């Protein structure tokens, strides 16, 4: 586990982009944080670095979006906010083995998955109440505290690789 501070939305996208080359089919990234924390901003940077086609936007109403990528391994972006349990996530019938999967609001809903990389994003208390940070980018540019936690063998491997990548160039 390691912690870092992400200063603004541009750096959050860059942070996502730094993770992208470390990912492969079968990897799952769990993003947690309140509304406006930067989960979708992170995923947008990750998707751009993967060469994902289509706009990376919050899949709140469709629950999951699949984006073809330059490597041929799809990026599946899931919003589990309206799901009540892991069973609901199972019902989405995601190709966990053949895709890179990013799940927003995944806490308590991925207990049956043995390995994943968790990224917890905390925006400052008293910060702007932004429901859609894309609507007002200036309000989105407050520093975020981020905790990265690897769960299971592959999750810990990703955590270490990401830490090494960031340590080599801490500018994100």
Provide a descriptive summary of the structure in words.
There is one protein chain. The chain is α/β, with parallel strands linked by helices. It contains five helices and seven strands. Strands 1-7-6-2-5-4-3 form a seven-stranded mixed beta sheet. Strand 3 (about 65) and strand 4 (about 75-80) form a beta hairpin. Helix 1 packs across helix 2 (about 40-50). The longest helix has 17 residues, at about 150-170. It is globular, with a radius of gyration of 15 Å. The chain starts with a strand and ends with a helix. Residues about 130-135 have low confidence and may be disordered.
Percentage of residues in helical conformation: 25-40%
Portion of residues in beta strands equals 15-25%
How many strands, what sense, and barrel or not for the largest sheet? 7 strands, mixed
Radius of gyration: 15 Å
Number of β-strand runs = 7
| Discrete helix count | 5
Q: Enumerate the strands of the largest sheet in spatial order, edge to edge or round the barrel.
A: 1-7-6-2-5-4-3
Shape: globular
Mean pLDDT: 86
SSE ordering = EHEHEEHEEHEH
Distance between the termini: 17 Å
Short description:
The chain is α/β, with parallel strands linked by helices and 172 residues long.
What's the layout of helices and strands?
Elements lengths: L1 E5 L2 H11 L8 E5 L6 H12 L13 E4 L7 E5 L6 H6 L8 E5 L11 E7 L14 H4 L3 E8 H17 L4
Parallel strand pairs: 2-5, 2-6, 4-5
Antiparallel strand pairs: 1-7, 3-4, 6-7
């Amino acid at each position: 586990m390691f912690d870092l501070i992400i200063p603004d939305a541009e750096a959050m996208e860059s942070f996502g982009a730094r993770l992208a080359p470390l990912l492969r089919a079968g990897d799952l990234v769990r993003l947690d944080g309140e509304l406006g924390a930067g989960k979708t901003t992170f995923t947008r940077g990750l998707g751009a670095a993967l060469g994902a086609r289509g706009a990376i936007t919050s899949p709140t109403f469709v629950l999951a979006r699949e984006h073809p990528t330059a490597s041929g391994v799809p990026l599946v972006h899931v919003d589990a906010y309206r799901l009540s349990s892991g069973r609901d996530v199972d019902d989405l019938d995601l190709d966990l083995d053949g895709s890179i999967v990013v799940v927003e609001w995944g806490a308590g809903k991925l207990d049956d998955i043995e390995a994943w990389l968790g990224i917890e994003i905390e925006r400052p208390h008293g910060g702007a109440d932004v429901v859609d940070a894309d609507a007002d980018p200036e309000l989105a540019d407050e520093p975020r505290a981020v905790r990265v936690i690897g769960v299971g063998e592959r999750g810990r491997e990703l955590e270490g690789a990401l830490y090494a990548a960031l340590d080599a160039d801490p500018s994100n």
